Amino acid sequence: MRKFLPIAFALAVLLSLSSSVYGQQRVLRGKVTASSDGLPLPGVTILDRSNQSGTTTNVDGEYSISVTDQSVLVFSFIGFSSKEITVGNQTELNVVLDEEASDLSEVVVTALGISKEKETLGYSVTAVGSETLTKAREPNVANSLAGRVAGLVVKGTNSGPGGTSKITLRGLPSISGTGSPLYVINGIPMDNTQRGSAGEWGGGDTGDGIGNLSPDDIETMTVLKGQAASALYGSRASNGVILITTKQGSKGSDWSLDYTMNYMAEKPVDFTDFQTVYGQGTGGLKPATAADAQTTGRLAWGAPLDGSSVVGFDGNQYPYSPTDDRYIDFYRTGSNFTNTVSISKGLGTDGSFRMSVSNLSSKSIVPNSGMDRLSINLNVDQNITDKLNVSAMINYIDQNSNNIPFLSDGPKNPNNFLMLAPNISQSIFAPGYNPETGAETVFSDDIYVTNPYFIVNQGVNDAGRKRTISALSTKYAFTKDIFAMVRLGNDVSNDDFFSVDPTGLAYTADLKGNLGGRGQSQRSEFNIDGILGAKFDLAENLTLDALAGANLRNNKFESVGVGGSRFVLPYLYSPFNVETFSRSYEYNEREVHSAYYSVGFGFNNILTLTTTGRYDVYSTLPTDNNSIFSPSVAAAFVFDQLLDMPALDFGKLRASYAVTSGEPFQAYQTAFYYSSANAFNGIPAGSSPTSLPNLDLKPFTTDEIEFGVDLSFFNNRLGFDIAYYEKETHNEIMNASYSIASGFNSAVVATGSTSNKGLEVLVTGTPIQSPNFVWKTSFNLSKVKNEVLSTDNNNNPVNLGQNRATLGNAVTAYVVGEAGPQIRAYDYAYNEDGSIRVDASGLPVRGELINMGSVLPTLYGGWSNEFSYKGIMFSFLIDYNFGNKVLSATEFYSIFRGLHQITLEGREGGVTNDGVTSTAEAYYRALAQNVTSTSVVDGDFIKLRQLTLGYALPSKWFGNTPVLKGLEVSLVARNLAILMRKADNIDPEASFGSNINYTGIEGANLPSTRSFGFNLNFKLN
């Protein structure tokens, strides 16, 4: 409620500002016809740029729309050139549209924020519009890209609101990188550092940079997939670039006021299919005492569930039958409630502004956990003179997360009820602590497996962020075709964190708790660019398009914090109330100096050849080896004009080659540095590093070659965008293991190399286009093959991540000759006849460590459909994922604890192998521990990712309404259903980690969710 008040106040102010103009509204009528034959055109889209309201022509080509004198109407129709007309004082406006051969000559945003015609590009670019991002929205806007862009894999983290979005583009990212593309907002790179993540030892996901942005402020997200598309960004662009263009006002437009309300309810989903035949206990017996009940609460090796009674952990009697109160009932229905108000206006014909205020109130499915985010965005664009333009953007974010869930390992994890025996109701462990003593109610045999009720009721794990992203650009046009630009961008985040092991937590000393950390950090990225650009006609059919520029980038990070052990006074979580005190400090600063150019030649609107180059100098490397030049060349050949094919509207062949570079994040890896240590008997001491530095480190590179074709048929009713690429990384910087006998246990080397080869296909179409009904469809497919070419000096496997269940016995790793990251686990041991080998007790014997498959898919994509009928809009998105494996802790624990369906076999007569019989309990527990390949499952799935149903009320209904000018209502759903999956007990997308090291590793993360809601968009006078 507190955060909603600024929205309500802003709405009231903006309403009062706009009330003075509502009297200028009137209804404009007219007819749209084709220039070729004079026939009426039904289904023409008519958009008022001043307020984004619109309508379509009827079967007779007629329309009516509410306008003002300042309204600018855009008339557009497939196969015809768009037309833009200022209304003025007209009451009737008849429009004639001209046919055009192609609508692929659209302008798209490319590297450095420079707009170019799409038909001249020699690489693949895909743009996703604002409507896609705001209908069935996600708290992290990047997750809305899932299934919509060929080559792009999007995975959210199962960590609640504010969680990280993991994006990989075109296969395996660089070994030494984060895997994430570079995000650029209005031409300025923004910081997307992941602030905190979970690993096999626990931890929480405190989000990334892109998750702070409000989708209501984004006009488009454009994905530059190839290295040629992103080469001008040099460092950090080897994993691709996603360009973000924010919404702006329209020059010459009148006041426009929008209010959008979106509500999404999130329901946790239980994907487990555990057995409910046998209950709590061991050895086929029920627990006989309260102590036995506590230690066997997560073991289902007991007697058959017969409806009798059994003693519980608290000494009370409970039914020994399947419970309806499962682990999933611990969670609540979460919600995301967004209110956004925006106002825009043209400042005469020379400028415009747009301002918005947005509030997101998000309640996690975890009780007492959630996030609030307030966003304020201002965009101003002004022509100072007819040659000088100044534009500015500032985006302020105030985000606060409370009680962020801990994931993966048992301590403080709210998902610890997942493995309860089928007869145990999770609610009997509430409220999780003794109200008199405050001591945690321990519900299992392990005090480190925290009672979920205790941590949600008593836990403290809060994070706050105040962030300002600003950009200022000045552009001076010497002539129509020659310009100079200076652009500055600054991205500053001030974070605070507060984490506590609460008083009463079972595993803390004397139940006194600990101060995990309290402090602040600041992270900043500053960019300044100077660009000079020009376009010349060299001959009658030959043009030259060139630019040159320079960039300075500075990144800083500074953090200070305090902590301590054992609170003196209970529940006073202050650093002055601990028995032992600790402090921390961290600082990092990097700088890159760059120069770049782009030169493009165009011949007769048929052939375009563009070459770029970038020279980077990195501060993190020694001066004699700290620079690199990254070139690219791209060609586009438009061939449709040379063919006599009436059905072909547009045809383009494209090819490109490019090199991008990357720097090491850490400095001080190239020299030997001593550090101070604790004094010994009063004598100051020092220490030397155990990692061997490398004097010859240099920037790693990624090179890529790409071929593609763009085709459009039947008046642009059918289109194809096909690309094939091969890319390879070289000299990747990584850690290598050494024998301690050498004096070092590790070293920094630059020997890593990976390869990716892929095919991407995008098919778009309009199967039906009639006056009242339109069906648009889009299908994308990506096929990728990746391989690790080299790792360290000896090409040893490089381990990345694991989960606690199979600790040390199953990992993900980079393995030379295999796709990466590769899951490595222990197989069965086999006899000569191929049968499973067992020991003298009949228990399975561990075999060899084998490679079981990559965690990255080899085939993936999506199918999107949009239908409209007389103002009714219906759409759905299906995406799919094949060819990857998942290392599942749920699979391990469910077998080990007797919950998995396979453990029903042999419960009565035992399990017999090689003539030896063992009890089912002994056999399956040994199976899970020794043969960790049983914890690896297929990650294949097909999902109904999104569904929307909306209705735009006709604008004529509001012709005489003094305030309301338009209303659109939508019912929306997200992650609606899994249409196919091979994994029995998990959502194959589920994970706790938020970086490439933990991709494809599942276990003890929050449940996946299914979202339902509605969206209201009000157009106000």
From TrEMBL:
Keywords, ordered alphabetically: Cell outer membrane, Membrane, Signal, Transmembrane, Transmembrane beta strand, Transport
PROSITE patterns: TONB_DEPENDENT_REC_3
Compartments where located: Cell outer membrane
Keyword Signal carried by entry: yes
Keyword Transit peptide on entry: no
Record membrane topology: Multi-pass membrane protein
UniProt signal peptide: 1-23
Domain TonB-dependent receptor plug: 119-241
Primary location: membrane
Similarity comment text for this entry: Belongs to the TonB-dependent receptor family.
Protein name: SusC/RagA family TonB-linked outer membrane protein
Organism: Algoriphagus aestuariicola
